[in-house]
What does this fold into?
Amino acid sequence: MQFLAAIVSAVSLSVLSFGATITADSGATSLPETLVYAPDYVVFELVRPEGDYGGKASRGQELLQHVAERHGFDQTVRVFAHSPEGPLKDVYLARLSAGVSPIEACEEMQADPAVKWAEPDYYYRCQLAPDDTYYASTGSWGQEYLDMWGLHAVNPQNA
It folds into this structure.
């Protein structure tokens, strides 16, 4: 179950801020510095061998196995498994072995020619309230409750 939560986190990372990075001292997050990223996961993209289109005997799969062995991953999973083709087909989430720092693992992976990029599995939080005109108003249509009551129910600024 913990691995599934990390996958969801990685999907959020890739969808909401693909290519962006934040650091603990950037002020970009309200989380404590110690919780800026998952302590045992990294997200990375493989450099797919030229001419490899994901067939049964995929060289990409062999490459993934070699990268996982070289860096001592406990487990890897494709972040966008539902989309085997496209620009994010080679993005993976890896669970690190016990005691391995995500920062150190990413630095090591950046030197690996089989890895395009690597970064810790950052935590992201929305810190803005919706900018809808009716978000902060009540009774615009004669009702006695908030106009955008559904948005208030899901608490988007803390999602």
Q: What stands out?
A: Residues 24 and 32 are 8 Å apart (CA to CA). The longest helix spans residues 2-17. DSSP finds four helices and four strands in the chain.
